[in-house]
Design a protein that fits this description.
It is a single chain. With 611 residues, this protein is of the alpha+beta class. The protein folds into four domains: 249 residues, no CATH class; 80 residues, Pdz3 Domain (Roll), CATH 2.30.42.10; 68 residues, no CATH class; 128 residues, GAF domain (Beta-Lactamase). Helix content is 60%, strand content 10%. A hairpin with a 2-residue loop joins strand 12 and strand 13. Helix 5 runs antiparallel to helix 6, helix 6 packs antiparallel against helix 7 and helix 13 packs antiparallel against helix 14.
């Protein structure tokens, strides 16, 4: 794909993302349908080693004489029955029948089990509902990151979220044995694309570190994928097709997945410790999410696939809740600390989408409960319509409240910064000294947005002199001439300049997080009169377009204030000049009058006696 032109590569990436999302979303819808569709149960749980781990009392399995510790004879059990008895079983409706052979106390027996309706207790529904909501969060975060900022890191994490979310993928509610095997085989392959995607994310987030072991791991990624995919596929084929117990092989597979999790945690930890210091605060939550999420994921898989006990419902729900911390912490880092360079509006859209999805899920459950209640009481269609309208109005009100809450909790600092800069833009117009305007232009953006350094350069003669700064140590750059690359760029674009795009790396600039990253022009009467150099924050976050616009409004207001001061100075000069002209005129008139008066006393030529 890298050999394609950029626009074709973008289209191909979008199409691939749409296909993967449609598949994952379809599987999620099928899984969600079990909230209202009754499922069947035989009352037994058996692992990949074909050993019975639990038998429910008064179940078809108990009635057939199956007990905990018995072993299912996979070779003697028909192919059509194996996917419903061992491992991650296919769902089946009440009334489904399976035939099996099993060993009970060393005696081989045969049985035919007929599924009964699974007990629809509230804890089970809560656990499934929570798993579905968690999977929705996985899908939204993974798709959003890829769509809004394509990179190796976002594609890796996006594939992990889309292909390894808590709900096992299936495109049919009650598939046949053959269809289930096809779904499982496909999932065995694509889930390992997600597993390797996690390593790709950890290798490149937020930037790739140059380490020998990282280069080796990057070269081994295709091999890791092939081995894991083949291994996972073999386990399901061995059980469903060849009738071979693979309990030990599955235990080693879970250990291999655990090693992948350890490698991902090690990569993120090394990035946190060995990367730039300013990245640590931005990566802290991601690091916590990796430790909690991947550890719980490993424990859950070990208990689910290898342990000789059935996982309690409360523990299953807790593990799911903690696994979802991984996409949530990454999303938080992107939204709050902009670890990945995304537009703020898109970042806020991620948060709104997450909360809206949860609301939709909650109101869908409420609507379903009301529908069942109304059906039970045989209430009229009119009352049902009123209830639906009330639910819709309630949803709109709650949605608006959620938006306000999100803005207050996550984006309150942005709102306060915007309001402060707007007040500064209004106040600067009333300044009476250029030096006051200079300091206000530097101090307000630095304090409102938490910038490390800000410097103002204004025209002086044939160049630009630094007239105010904060975060620029002594000995740093104080003057730029008209032929400087940054000055020429401002003349050419009349717009903000991202310094990394020039490139522009003059001697004497502050280093590290104090290094300027954005230049905003100060224009007066269509000519460049100066520019404001801004760094990022202490955490390495750069100004996003909206924040840059707030500072630009302040710079524009300052330019107007400079013009007004200059106009006032010119007016005062004109007034002073007019006063001087009037004084000089009066003095001239006085001199003329004196000259005329003095001339009247002079003797005439005829009255002068001869010499």
């Amino acid at each position: 794909m890298h050999r394609l032109p950029p626009h074709l590569r973008l289209v191909a990436g979008r199409m691939l993302l749409a296909v993967i999302f449609a598949w994952a979303a379809g599987a999620l819808v099928v899984s969600a349908s079990f909230l209202w569709t009754p499922r069947g149960t035989f009352g037994l749980t058996a692992g990949y080693g074909a050993r019975v781990m639990a038998v429910a009392a008064h179940s078809p399995a108990a009635a057939a004489g199956i007990a905990t510790g018995d072993r299912i004879d996979l070779g003697g059990t028909p192919f059509d029955s194996r996917p419903f008895l061992v491992g991650v079983t296919a769902p089946y409706p009440p009334g489904a029948r399976v035939s099996l052979r099993f060993l009970h106390e060393g005696i081989e027996r045969s049985a035919v089990l007929t599924a009964v309706k699974e007990d629809e207790d509230n804890p089970t529904r809560v656990a499934l509902g929570f798993a579905i909501v968690s999977s929705m969060l996985f899908l939204i975060v993974g798709t959003g990151l890829i769509f809004w900022r394509e990179s190796a890191a976002t594609w890796g994490f996006g594939l992990y979220c889309l292909l390894t979310n808590p709900v096992i993928a299936s495109l049919s509610r009650f598939p046949s044995a053959a269809a289930h095997l096809g779904y499982v085989a496909l999932y065995d392959i694509v889930q390992n694309v997600g597993v390797v995607g996690l390593l790709v994310f950890a290798l490149n987030f937020p930037r790739a570190l140059k380490r020998p072991w990282r280069r080796t791991l990057r070269r081994l990624l295709p091999v890791i994928f092939v081995v894991l995919a083949a291994w996972t596929l073999w386990i399901d084929l061995a059980v469903c097709v060849f009738g071979i117990p693979v309990g030990l092989s599955n235990r080693f597979l879970q250990l291999a997945f655990g090693l992948i999790d350890v490698a991902a945690i090690a990569l993120i930890t090394e990035t946190y410790l060995a990367g730039p210091v300013e990245d640590r605060a931005r990566l802290r939550w991601v690091l916590i999410g990796f430790y909690i999420g991947l550890l719980c994921n490993f424990i859950g898989n070990v208990l689910l696939y290898t342990a000789n006990v059935v996982l309690p419902l409360w523990l299953d729900t807790l593990l799911i809740a903690l696994v979802v911390s991984l996409p949530l912490t990454v999303a938080y880092a992107v939204v709050r600390h902009r670890v990945i360079d995304t537009d703020f509006f898109l970042s806020r859209a991620i948060v709104y989408a997450l909360f809206t999805s949860v609301l939709v899920m909650v109101f869908a459950v409420i609507d379903w409960l009301f529908s069942r209640l109304l059906a039970d009481f045989r209430l009229s269609l009119f009352i049902e319509a009123l209830v639906s309208i009330g639910a819709a109005i309630s949803f709109d009100a709650v949605h608006k409240r959620v938006e306000r809450t999100v803005d207050e909790l996550l984006f309150r600092g942005r709102r306060l910064a915007r309001e402060r800069l707007e007040r500064a833009a209004r106040a600067v117009r009333h300044a009476t000294l250029p030096s006051s305007i200079d300091r206000l232009m530097v101090d307000e953006p630095k304090e409102a947005l938490g910038l490390v350094s800000v410097a103002l350069f204004r025209r002086e003669g044939d160049g630009f002199r630094r007239v105010a700064a904060d975060g620029w140590p002594p000995g740093t750059l104080e003057r730029l001439d008209d032929d400087d690359r940054l000055v020429l760029e401002h003349h050419a674009t009349n717009d903000r300049v991202v310094l990394a795009a020039l490139p522009w790396n003059r001697d004497g600039l502050p280093h590290g997080v104090s290094h300027p990253s954005l230049s905003l022009p100060l224009e007066s009467r269509a000519s460049l009169e100066g520019f404001l150099l801004c760094s990022g924050t202490a955490h390495g976050e750069q100004l996003d377009p909206e924040e840059s616009e707030w500072v630009e409004q302040l710079v524009s207001a300052a330019a107007t204030a400079y013009e007004e001061l200059e106009t006032e100075q010119l007016r005062e000069r004109v007034t002073s000049a007019e006063d001087q002209v009037r004084v000089l005129g009066a003095q001239l008139d006085e001199a003329r009058r004196a000259a005329v008066a003095g001339a009247s006393y002079l003797p005439t030529a005829s009255a002068v006696p001869p010499g």
